[in-house]
Write a structure and sequence with these properties.
alpha/beta; 12 helices; three-stranded antiparallel β-sheet
């Protein structure tokens, strides 16, 4: 929140190093390790990612299939730089998750497990450097749901992770498919939070324009399909205690939900809870770049289900997440929910005593 005496929307640091500048929690931020281990499997996988230097000393290229997938800045791995950005934007805590392409569901599961463990170790080290400022969501090889469940058990037993990030689909199979039952059963039993991010979206053959349209146009539909699949596939009905958050406000799901609910009885799906009830048990980030759209998400899903999300530190990140809340002129209770209360419930994390700027 804005310190007394400063204009609304201006957030600056006034605490000792390592102390949160505000109560705001950002559940949608990504990391990329500075280096990745060399491929050590037996399959000669060309999809194994690597990191390479660029002409910009503070950036590195992520190489996948021999091509530059993305150039990323040092904020992907540098804790001091992330803290500087957080202080300037008023974020008290970031939830770290891997860049989605690193989930690597198209690899052999054992290869992906090696990569996941390296990424998870980097995330754990970052949290250890600033435990009041970071929480971590790891990654597991979901192409093998049984292996993913066992790895999730290991992560949660370590005490270093609040849960995991997963993609909207696993090499083309949407997450509501019955084959992922072992993973969701384990997540519910372990109390692990799940953050869902679009990955290799459906419909790419219908995009007309530059490559950047994948994130701008294809991701919303992909995310809506994944969210709907958890309802139509019965995942949420079988596992009502799951805590699942969708990135990008779940894309087009807010517009899909009323249509799904209206035709529910005609589908003959006999589930204990309606689509409305199930959808309002999920969490959603605020990354929709527009205050009226955010207001619509609050109206559809409920003020108790929205959490701040920015996509830091990538180019499409929202640089004004708290100011967008200001534009909605929310009451103190609702604002507090969106700033941190909902995120703490999603993470099942006890509140931290945050010092406010003066």
């Amino acid at each position: 929140m804005s310190p007394p005496g400063r204009p609304k929307g201006e957030y600056r640091r006034a605490q000792p190093e390592g102390t949160p500048v505000s109560v705001a929690i950002d559940i949608h931020t990504h990391i990329v390790p500075h280096d990745l281990p060399p491929y050590a499997g037996a399959g000669g996988s060309t999809s194994w990612p690597s990191m390479a230097a660029t002409s910009q000393c503070q950036h590195r290229n992520v190489i996948i299939d021999g091509k530059v997938f993305r150039s990323v800045s040092h904020e992907c791995w540098d804790v001091a730089q992330r803290l500087h950005h957080m202080d300037a934007s008023g974020i008290g805590m970031q939830v770290l998750s891997p860049m989605p392409e690193l989930l690597s569901y198209w690899m052999p599961a054992q290869d992906a497990l090696v990569l996941c463990r390296h990424i998870n170790e980097v995330a754990a080290q970052m949290v250890a450097q600033a435990p009041l400022r970071f929480a971590a969501l790891g990654c597991v090889p979901l192409q093998d749901p049984e292996l993913a469940a066992r790895e999730l058990e290991r992560l949660m037993a370590s005490g270093q992770f609040r849960g995991v990030e997963i993609g909207t689909n696993v090499d083309g199979t949407v997450i509501g498919d019955p084959r992922f039952e072992p993973f969701f059963a384990a997540a519910e039993a372990l109390g692990a939070a799940i953050f869902v991010h679009p990955l290799r979206a459906v419909g790419l053959d219908r995009l007309v324009g530059p490559p950047g349209l994948v994130q701008l146009v294809a991701f919303p539909g992909e995310t809506a399909l994944a969210a709907a699949s958890l309802i139509t596939g019965g995942v949420l009905d079988r596992h009502p205690r799951l805590r699942i958050a969708f990135s990008h406000g779940a894309g087009g799901f807010a517009m899909t939900l009323p249509r799904l609910a209206a035709g529910w009885e005609h589908l003959g799906l006999d589930q204990r809870r309606t689509p409305w009830e199930q959808a309002r048990g999920l969490y959603y980030d605020t990354l929709v770049y527009d205050a009226p759209t955010l207001r619509h998400l609050i109206d559809v899903f409920g003020a108790t289900q929205l959490c701040i999300g920015t996509d830091h530190p990538f180019a499409i990140q929202d640089l004004r997440p708290l100011q967008r809340l200001d534009e909605l002129q929310l009451g103190d209770e609702v604002r507090a929910q969106l700033l941190s209360g909902n995120a703490l419930r999603f993470l099942e994390q006890a509140p931290v005593e945050h010092a406010h700027a003066h």
